Amino acid sequence: AQSVSQHNHHVILSEAASLELGCNYSYGGTVNLFWYVQYPGQHLQLLLKYFSGDPLVKGIKGFEAEFIKSKFSFNLRKPSVQWSDTAEYFCAVRPDNAGNMLTFGGGTRLMVKP
Amino acid sequence: KAGVTQTPRYLIKTRGQQVTLSCSPISGHRSVSWYQQTPGQGLQFLFEYFSETQRNKGNFPGRFSGRQFSNSRSEMNVSTLELGDSALYLCASSLETGGLGGYTFGSGTRLTVV
Description:
The complex is a heterodimer. Chain A has strands at residues 3-5, 10-14, 19-21, 24-26, 31-38, 45-50, 56-58, 64-68, 73-78, 87-95, 103-104, 108-113. Chain A is an all-beta fold. In chain A, the strands form 3 sheets. In chain A, strands 2, 5, 6, 10, 11 and 12 form a 6-stranded mixed beta sheet that branches. Chain A starts with a strand and ends with a strand. Chain B is an all-beta fold. Helix content of chain B is 0%, strand content 53%. Chain B has no helices and 11 strands. Chain B is globular, with a radius of gyration of 13 Å. The relative contact order of chain B is 0.33. The A-B interface holds A 34, 36, 42-46, 49, 51, 90, 92, 96-107 and B 31, 33, 35, 42-45, 48, 50, 55-56, 58, 90, 92, 94, 97-98, 100, 102-108.
C-alpha cells in the first residue's frame, strides 16, 4: 500500500520568508499528486495538483510544487509567505488506478508571524 | 454554485449507538468519497461511491458503511459506536472517478462519542 510522509510537523516562519514543505511518497507505479490547505476553521481546499507533464506545477495564492520522480517527492514552495498563509498543509497521493482514493500525509502546521 | 454540504455539522452520540451522516455533492458531481480525520491518525480514506456503486474501500471495520442515491447524495453509517470513532468526517465530491479533476471537500461532520 502507498504511504505519504510529511517530515515537518510544525513550521514557524516570519512574513516574507521563503517556504518549502517536504512530501515523500512510497508507491512504485504512476501517481497523481495533490497539495491541500486547511485554514483555521475552514474546509480543505486544493492548492495544486500534478497529473503529468511539466513537473513544476503552479497553484493558487503563489504556491508551486515540484515533482521529482527519482526522489518520490512533491515539495511545496512559496517564495514569500504572508500571515494569511497560516494553516495546515496536506500532501496527498492517488495511484493511477485507485479511482478517487487519496492517501494523505500527516500534515504540516505552518504559523507565519507578522 | 453551492459547495459540498454535509449534515449535521456536529453530533454527540453514546457508545453502542449508531449514526448516519449525510453528504450532498456539488451539482453534477457523481463521485463521493468519505474520509475520517483525527489528531492521531490524520486523514484516512473510508470509501468512494460513484454512480451508486462502491468503487473503493479503505481499511476500516465493517461497522462503517455507506451508500449513494440516484441523485448522487451519499450517506455513511457507523454502527455500534466506539469512543475511537470520535472524529471529523469529511466528504469530497468530484465529477468522475479517477479523472483529472480535483476534489471539493465539505466542512465535515464532527462526531463525538461519549
